């Protein structure tokens, strides 16, 4: 993610806004939140797709209570819409082929795609579809969405930080985001484990998901979209 130059723009304190409910009502707060957005973010409004060779959709988990195992997924489709003027309109969708998991150890990867964990034969994909986005201030956002693993869907919150944007030497407009969330894998039916003699478990139930995103601006067709509101770009 080092290709991004973080751009900081001074923003004057916005005057009090008047909206539904009076000066302190929800309309005023929303207007004030929009006014506080960096103009550089507003310029990013549009459709984007994740550049897989320069991004990472990964995870990390404690192993045997003493070390951390890291892995990632190499094969996925993405569709992103970022609204820099109205962040609540931003949305994202990811469809990940779990058979592409890579932890650097072939035997471990084979175990992960088996019935003890992802059960890839019956559930070849995991998905994330956003349901809301909140601007938390500065360059930080919280995206809430439905994460589906092994046929089970639960809501998760992803903390997203904007890293910057750049026009690369090949003419692609890029924007960078870092995202993280921590889940309990048991909530999605991934309950396999082995207990250690000294106490604790071989594999932690807590899993940290990591989204290191280099997104490229894309052109999305204007015709009808699927129920999620996002359409994957045609290549």
Give a structural overview.
The longest helix has 10 residues, at 26-35. Strands 1-4-5-7-8-9-10-11 form an eight-stranded antiparallel barrel. It has helices at 26-35, 39-42, 106-112; strands spanning 46-50, 56-63, 67-73, 76-82, 91-97, 101-102, 125-137, 140-149, 152-167, 173-184, 203-218. It is mainly beta. The two termini are 24 Å apart.
Strand content: 35-45%
Sheet with most strands: strand arrangement: 1-4-5-7-8-9-10-11
Secondary-structure-derived class = mainly beta
Rounded to an integer in angstroms, the radius of gyration calculated over CA atoms is 20 Å
Keywords:
235 residues, single chain, mainly beta
Layout of secondary structure:
Elements: H1 26-35, H2 39-42, E1 46-50, E2 56-63, E3 67-73, E4 76-82, E5 91-97, E6 101-102, H3 106-112, E7 125-137, E8 140-149, E9 152-167, E10 173-184, E11 203-218
Antiparallel strand pairs: 1-4, 1-11, 2-3, 2-11, 3-6, 4-5, 5-7, 7-8, 8-9, 9-10, 10-11
């Amino acid at each position: 993610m080092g290709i991004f130059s973080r751009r900081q723009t001074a923003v004057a304190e916005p005057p009090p806004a008047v909206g539904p409910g009076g000066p302190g009502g929800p309309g005023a707060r929303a207007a004030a939140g929009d006014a506080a957005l960096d103009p550089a973010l507003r310029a990013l409004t549009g459709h984007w797709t994740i550049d897989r060779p320069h991004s990472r959709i990964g995870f990390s988990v404690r192993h045997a209570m003493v070390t951390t195992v890291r892995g990632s997924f190499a094969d996925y489709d993405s569709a992103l819409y970022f609204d820099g003027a109205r962040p609540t309109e931003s949305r994202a969708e990811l469809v990940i082929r779990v058979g592409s998991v890579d932890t650097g150890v072939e035997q471990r990867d084979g175990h992960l795609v088996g019935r003890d964990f992802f059960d890839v034969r019956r559930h070849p994909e995991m998905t994330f579809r956003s349901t809301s986005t909140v601007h938390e201030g500065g360059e930080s956002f919280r995206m809430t969405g439905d994460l589906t693993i092994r046929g089970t869907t639960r809501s998760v919150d992803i903390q997203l930080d904007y890293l910057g944007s750049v026009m690369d030497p090949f003419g692609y407009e890029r924007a960078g985001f870092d995202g993280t969330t921590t889940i309990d894998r048991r909530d999605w039916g991934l309950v396999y484990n082995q207990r250690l003699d000294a106490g604790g478990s071989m594999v932690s139930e807590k899993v940290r998901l990591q989204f290191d995103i280099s997104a490229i601006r894309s052109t999305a067709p204007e015709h009808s979209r699927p129920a999620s509101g996002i359409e994957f770009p045609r290549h």
